[in-house]
Amino acid sequence: EEQLVQSGAEVKKPGDSLKISCKGLGYSFTNSWVGWVRQMPGKGLEWMGIIYAGDSETRYSQTFQGQVTISADKSISTAYLHWSTLKASDTAMYYCATYDYVPGTFSVWGQGTLVTVSS
Amino acid sequence: SSELTQDPTVSVALGQTVRITCQGDSLRSYYGNWYQQKPGQAPRVVIYDKNNRPSGIPDRFSGSSSGDTASLTITGAQAEDEADYYCNSRDRSGNVVFGGGTKLTVL
């Protein structure tokens, strides 16, 4: 069974850095795309970016370009979402999901990682 | 950039049929996908690539597409179908877009 398992909730201060993770289980992580999606409290889903685990080809939403870094380590079947400088407005639930490139489908979702940024 | 437009709220009487729509230019080139999200849960795909259902999704869920509009139809809505529903697609540049979401209430 395909699964994505995300790292646990984080509480950080403005200006901190953070990297959250998403581990793929039960499928060929290397030959797949993984996407990240933000959901701010009480709001809808926002696409952040996608990465192809095989060669780390990455595509970002214009909204998130330069704000976060998406990476992957295929040797341990794990994708990452990294912030160098967190802001209070980064407080949100973050989901990773497997991404089927042609139909643009997010097929299997992680359980989500809640990031809280507060002074 | 691409946008997808959904009605914010839709309601349906128990056992009746409801259609949720999603409109945007990217849907002229790529079929839409639909996700269901219940409170406190991660989203899950209910329809992908126009009208394909993942295993485990009841056959009362179906999808269709015409022009720049994708639709999700629930035939015989059940209480457990009350949720937020999001559409998404990709565009020619490979970017991904989500609709704003529709809150479905089952009366």
Question: How are the elements arranged and paired?
Answer:
The complex is a heterodimer of chains A (119) and B (107).
Chain A: E1 3-6, E2 10-12, E3 18-25, E4 33-39, E5 45-52, E6 57-60, E7 69-73, E8 78-83, E9 92-100, E10 105-109, E11 113-117
Parallel strand pairs in A: 2-11
Antiparallel strand pairs in A: 1-3, 3-8, 4-5, 4-9, 5-6, 7-8, 9-10, 9-11
Chain B: E1 5-6, E2 9-12, E3 18-23, E4 33-37, E5 44-47, E6 61-66, E7 69-74, E8 83-90, E9 96-98, E10 102-106
Parallel strand pairs in B: 2-10
Antiparallel strand pairs in B: 1-3, 3-7, 4-5, 4-8, 6-7, 8-9, 8-10
Description:
By secondary structure, chain A is mainly β. In chain A, 0% of the residues lie in helices and 54% in strands. In chain A, strands 2, 4, 5, 6, 9, 10 and 11 form a seven-stranded mixed β-sheet that branches. A four-stranded antiparallel β-sheet of chain A has the order 1-3-8-7, with no helix packed on it. Chain A is globular and about 40 Å long. Chain B is globular and about 40 Å long. Chain B is 0% helix and 46% strand. Chain B is built from no helices and ten strands. Chain B has strands at 5-6, 9-12, 18-23, 33-37, 44-47, 61-66, 69-74, 83-90, 96-98, 102-106. Chain B is mainly beta and 107 residues long. In chain B, strands 2, 4, 5, 8, 9 and 10 form a six-stranded mixed β-sheet that branches. In chain B, strands 1-3-7-6 form a four-stranded antiparallel β-sheet, with no helix packed on it. The chains are: A mainly beta (119), B mainly beta (107). Chains A and B meet through strand 5, strand 9 and strand 10 of A and strand 4, strand 8 and strand 9 of B.
